[in-house]
Write a structure and sequence with these properties.
Length: 274
């Protein structure tokens, strides 16, 4: 396994099928499931590339950029155990010039949900994903459905800007109690961690509900989440899974997406309804 930190040390993909898994590191079983999808797609002779980059551009000022976990040795070991071919792990000043003035921005899907709560976040994501696509020229790239909005925005960007890259999606990997794996779960206090499975419980209750009014389903979801005293709802919305625009009724490909604070830790999750 090669580990590259400098752009000038990257070699072109060559003839082998190259499949990319972009991450911010602190790898957990969710990331590993994407690496396995990448291997399936690349084939035995293909090349699986994991990027590890805590992207300053997608963190709002005052958020957790500095304290975001960076367990380099454990990440390397996890990638080695999965047969990853290349880790690209640049420092921020390797990817960004201090006088940078060009960004990539998706202007519709990015507006709502996490885009409304985290101004500039998705511009940071689309800019860095574009850079990684240019630098690594993969045939395919894998993203997790846990970040459903991010996946939709990347697909839209690839379509709109004609990137010759196939976008593959992996299902959300969860703890046994239903909490979606996230590098941010380690910020939770013991009491917050005990209450965090309420997020998944609320999503499942919504999916089981026979209600077809979005407002009534959202009321159920809010009540369930507010039953956990340490939870604070950032948003709970029902939108179309493809356009991410609000829906009044539940129909096929309707998405329920939530962002919930436990203390300063913001967790997201989603489920398809209908
Ligand atoms: P991150 O390191 O948080 O930027 O995530 C890197 C990739 O892993 C993204 O495509 C995420 O959607 C995906 N991911 C994060 N958590 C999970 C999870 N629990 N299950 C599946 N994929 C995930």
């Amino acid at each position: 396994m090669k580990i590259v930190e400098r752009i000038s040390d990257l070699s072109p993909p060559g003839e082998r099928r190259r499949v990319l898994v972009p991450t911010m590191g602190a790898l957990h079983a969710g990331h590993i499931s994407l690496v396995r999808l990448a291997r399936e797609s690349a084939g035995r002779d293909g090349e699986v590339v994991v990027t590890i980059f805590v992207n300053p551009l997608q963190f709002e000022p005052g958020s957790d950029f500095e304290r975001y976990p960076r367990p380099e040795a454990a990440d390397e070991a996890a990638c080695r155990a999965e047969g990853v071919d290349l880790i690209f792990r640049p420092q921020p000043n390797e990817l960004y010039c201090s006088d940078r003035s060009t960004f990539v921005e998706e202007t519709s899907l990015s507006k709502r949900l996490c885009g409304a709560s985290r101004p500039g976040h998705f511009r940071g994501v689309t800019t860095v994903v574009t850079k990684l696509f240019h630098l690594l020229a993969p045939d395919a790239a894998v993203f997790g459905e846990k970040d459903f909005q991010q996946l939709a925005i990347v697909r839209r960007m690839v379509r709109d800007l004609n990137f010759p890259i196939e976008i593959l999606a992996g299902p959300t990997v969860r703890e046994p109690d239903g909490l979606a794996l996230s590098s941010r779960n380690q910020y939770l206090s013991a009491a917050e961690r005990r209450q965090a499975p309420v997020i998944r419980a609320a999503l499942l209750e919504a999916a089981r509900s026979p209600e077809d009014s979005a407002e009534r389903v959202l009321t159920l979801v809010r009540q369930k989440i507010e039953s956990a005293p340490l939870a604070r709802i950032d948003y709970a919305e029902i939108v179309g899974a493809d356009d991410l625009q609000p829906r009044l009724t539940i129909a096929p490909r309707t998405l329920l997406a939530v962002a919930i604070f436990f203390g300063r830790t913001r967790l997201i999750d989603n489920i398809l309804l209908g």
